[in-house]
Amino acid sequence: MAKGDSKKRAEKMAKEWKKSKSTTKSINELVEMGPLHNQELGSWRAPLGESFLDPRAGEIVVFKDFFKRGFEVPVHPFLQGLLLYYEIGIHNLHPYSIILVATFIHLCEAFAGIEPHFDMFLYLFCLRKKGAVGGSKIAGGVFLNLRDGMINHYLRCPWNTSLSEWYKKWFYVQEEPNSATFCDVGYVREKRVSWTD
After folding, report:
1. In which residue ranges of the chain is pLDDT below 70?
2. pLDDT per residue over 48-78, tens digit each?
3. Beta carbons within 8 Å of 127's beta carbon, 6+ residues apart
4. CA 124 to CA 161: how far, in whole Å?
5. How far is CA 56 from CA 64, 140, 192, in A?
6. 20, 143, 154, 177: least buried by Cβ within 10 Å?
7. Under a CB-based contact definition with an 8 Å cutoff, are residues 92 and 181 in contact?
8. Model pTM?
């Protein structure tokens, strides 16, 4: 990579990502709560002293608030399929989207007794790009939302709750071998027709 390219990437990363507040102690709070395995079993690490993200091979970037909303590692195959379909990484989603997917998976598996149904999900939800006012285009730059007119066809819940500085609580998790979970922390996804069609 040329010096100019390296400098541009560093500038982009500094603009799009905020330095993480995650520490080994704060991540261990998730271990104590239950949604994350201990460091040896879960293969996670805090971004100690990093000015911007630098995931190692096989690692994905996740946010602490994802785990509080139903996210788990290994990434559920249904969520992996959605990420592939929309051509985004897990870090591109807002935590609000994680609870929508986790709830949908639970409703299909526990209530309806079926595998999560991809076409049903696409019928109910679409992917939207976050507004251009402030914030990152990468970290939480897109979110899943009920399609227009679907509010009477799905659960009525306060899905979108306020989160304070969730985008500053990122860390790394080792994903399962052969996982399809995409992780390019500098990738800004352009809107596609398939997000809303």
Report:
1. 1-6, 9-10, 12, 14, 51, 131-137, 158-162, 177-197
2. 877 677 888 888 889 999 998 888 888 899 9
3. 86, 88, 142, 143, 144, 145, 195, 196
4. 20
5. 19, 21, 29
6. 177
7. no
8. 0.81
Closest C-alpha among 92, 79, 94, 71 to residue 166? 94
> What is the distance of C-alpha 164 from the center of its chain?
16
Q: How far apart, in whole angstroms, are the C-alpha atoms of residue 40 and residue 43?
A: 5
- Placement of tokens 């009525």 in the chain: 156
Each domain of the chain, given as residue ranges in start order, spans 21-195
pLDDT of residue 25: 95
Q: Which residues have a Cβ under 8 Å from the Cβ of 104 and sit 6 or more positions away?
A: 116, 121, 124, 125
